[in-house]
Amino acid sequence: MKKYVLSVVAILASAAVHAQFLPDQLAVLRVGDGVVSLHLKQAPVFVDQFDPGRFNAAPTFTVPIPTNGPDTLFFNSHAATEGILTRSADRRLLALAGYGGVNLLEKPGTPSLLDIQRGFGTVDAAGTVHTYLYQPHDPSEKANARGVATDGTNNFWGCGNAGGTLYYNPTNGKGTLQFEPFQNSRAAKIINQILYISLNGPDGTAIDEPAGIYRFVDKAGNALPLPRQADATIDLVVPVTAPYTKNVGFDMNPDKTIAYMSDTMAGVQKYVKSGLVWKLAYNFAIPQTIPAAENHATGCFGLVVDFGGAAPVIYATTTEGYGGTVNSNRVVRIVDTNATAAVTTIAQCTSTNMAFRGIDFTPEAGTVPPANPPK
Fold it and tell me: 118 by DSSP, 3-state: which?
């Protein structure tokens, strides 16, 4: 068996100047170390910390996800749908999804097609990584693990394709519970102790539902804030307005009157609720830094919003790249004062063998109570 020695390029390795995550910073899921080709479809994974208020020449703290051993976890570095990152409802953990149980590149190729287990990983404020393998490979399905949300107490809700929208608790011995209404989901996030899932245009067409942000309800229409039952069904919360149907990441304010979505081709869309109706306010297009003829895409993938100030501040990862894949892309900030707000780059990937994917805020140390109870 071949052995692969993987390392982070020097500029990134030397940038880890803190011993743990700092509060109120950005955590960005990065695939690639600048050495291993993303076209191999397996690459080392890192969580980088960035200062949200300035341009970062390098991360201020980096956690490498293990590439060997029991906590190995990686995802398809070439896939346009994998690599969502979320922070737990209690704000103590970051969570990501992928493949594990084997060393990186031990079984070369597209991981969703190989006999490799699906798994979730968590990272705490000290940078400690734990991996939970929940599902073996099913040769009859190309099942991609895209992302996961968690309450921080061993409850996980995954998103993905081929029945990848599921609930899992590694301590109850019951395996996974798949939510049948979602055969194919893009992102999952717990907001105000309620689980939301995004569905894009092609996903919606497959199940005859519109694209948008959904929550779970029972068959009587009663809310299931954090669903754990097989007969849970879905309820559309924020519908997408065409042409912005390549939506992935999302966030919503606590009052549930403002929502943002990322679109991989268009940028970031703002939706506002007036009465009982959600309407598109405007789209933020992303200025490009790669020549159009060579560029992969012109929108955004991961997204998180700071609603704490006078104007919401949007943070997103872009989807540009060379060679038909996301790479050499950026983390951008938009202070949403109006439809013409500037798009500012705060971090830039330094190699075609690196890509920023998911994004959220950094985990906090200690026990953090939920922001609000379920509604």
Answer: strand
The CATH number given to whatever domain includes residue 339 is: 2.120.10.30
Number of domains in the chain: 1
* 44 domain residue, yes or no: yes
Domain assignment of residue 184, given as a range? 10-361
What pLDDT digit, counting tens, does each position of 223-258 carry? 999 999 988 999 999 999 999 999 999 999 999 999
Query: pTM above the 0.90 mark?
Result: yes
Contact, 17 vs 60, CB < 8 A? yes
CB count in 10 Å sphere of residue 254: 12
Q: Which of the 8 DSSP states describes residue 223? A: B
Residues 146 and 198: beta-carbon distance below 8 Å: no
pLDDT at 137: 84
**334 lies in a domain?**
yes
Distance CA 256, CA 273 (A): 8
| Start-end of H helices in the chain | 10-13, 201-207
Minimal CA–CA distance to 368: which of 211, 117, 153? 153
Flag whether 307 is in a domain.
yes
In a domain, 1, yes or no: no
pLDDT at residue 373 in the model: 35
| Per-residue model confidence (pLDDT) at position 364 | 97
Render pLDDT for 300-336 as a digit per residue (tens, 0 to 9).
999 999 999 999 999 999 999 999 999 999 999 999 9
User: SS3 for 38?
Assistant: helix
Candidates 86, 84, 81, 121; CA nearest to 101 is: 121
